[in-house]
Amino acid sequence: MGTKQINNYRVKSLVQQTANSIKKDIDKGVYRKNEQLLSINIYSKQYGVSRDTIEKAYIILKQEGYIHSVSGKGYFVIGKPDVRMKVLLLFNKLSSYKKNVYDAIVQTLGDKGRVDLHIHHYNPALLEESIEANLGNYHYYLVMPHFFDNANELEYLNILKRIPAGQLILVDKYLPQLNNVSAVFQDFRNDIYGALNEVTYHLAKYERVAVIFPFNRHHPPEIKDGIAQFCEENQKKFEVVSSVKLDELKKGTVYIVLAEDDLADLIKAVRITGNKLRKDIGIISFNETVFKELLDITVISTDFEEMGRKTAELMLQNKAAVIKNEFKIIIRKSL
């Protein structure tokens, strides 16, 4: 144990002197990583300092990342604090698009930040576990708030409200019910609606728009709402189907596809049935990939790398903002 040299006559408060004394011992290696510190009672008796002073000093050390507490056991040394910004990123799932967001955040932060990744799998309960276990341990909490279709909205809003508003950034989806919270997001309804209006000329030859919306994939329902609005305003039939079936493929239909496996099934079905892309059947796919570019598939997509960069910039600049991410349509030979 280190020798405590606390000068009551210095300007600094006794609490800060106590905290600084312990910090120096941690920095010098007197206290090693994972070593348990003296209990508040023992410290108070051994060094003649009040319990209140010790408790407040431990709180300072905990806030500065030198120590952590374990309920019912006491305080333990973490070591010299990592001065980098600590970020907890909570995705709903793993995918190539999410990887683009993650990579852009990490690259933009550089050596100024450390990003830990958790997955909540659309489950508010898992989100709650991650937040409860890590509240107070990070500077920022980045959350993709996509949940099960039947998730209780009040439940996940209350979970998110436990994070201080200035430390929470919503990524990919905005929740206007949360006040004073930053976000970098897609506007799913208006984005798809606007994209379809940009290509009304190319859609003129199709009488029907069908979105392949697989069950239990938890895609944002606002996508369907935006497509339905476009169809209503442009006198086109609108259908929602859960999968691609050969005997249900309809000429004169443009299919909007959200999932990669459904896109492969649709292309295969078009070929098997002898239909011609751009003439009998049209295809629009969500989210750009090299695969779709090579196959000449029309895509509508946000810029996931830009989403990650903008999110990181908010943290680096310590700035609060609600930013709608860019969304575009790339016309190719499938339309």
Indicate the overall shape.
Answer: elongated
Helical residues, percent: 25-40%
CATH fold description of the largest domain: Rossmann fold
Spatial strand sequence of the major β-sheet: 4-3-5-6-7-13
**Which ranges are low-confidence, i.e. pLDDT below 50, for 5 or more consecutive residues?**
1-11
State the CATH superfamily name of the largest domain.
Answer: Response regulator
Q: Approximately how much beta-strand content do the residues carry? A: 15-25%
The overall strand count is 14
Distance between the termini: 74 Å
Q: Label the structural class.
A: alpha/beta
Note down, in words, how this protein is organized.
Helices cover 38% and strands 20% of the residues. With 335 residues, the chain is an alpha/beta fold. It has three domains: 14-77, Winged helix-like DNA-binding domain superfamily/Winged helix DNA-binding domain (Arc Repressor Mutant, subunit A, Orthogonal Bundle), CATH 1.10.10; 85-185 and 304-325, 3-Layer(aba) Sandwich (Rossmann fold); 189-286, Rossmann fold (3-Layer(aba) Sandwich). It has a six-stranded parallel beta sheet. It has a six-stranded mixed beta sheet with strand order 9-8-10-11-12-14, sandwiched between helices. Helix 1 crosses helix 3 (51-63) and helix 4 packs parallel to helix 12. The longest helix is centred in the first third of the chain and has 15 residues, at 14-28.
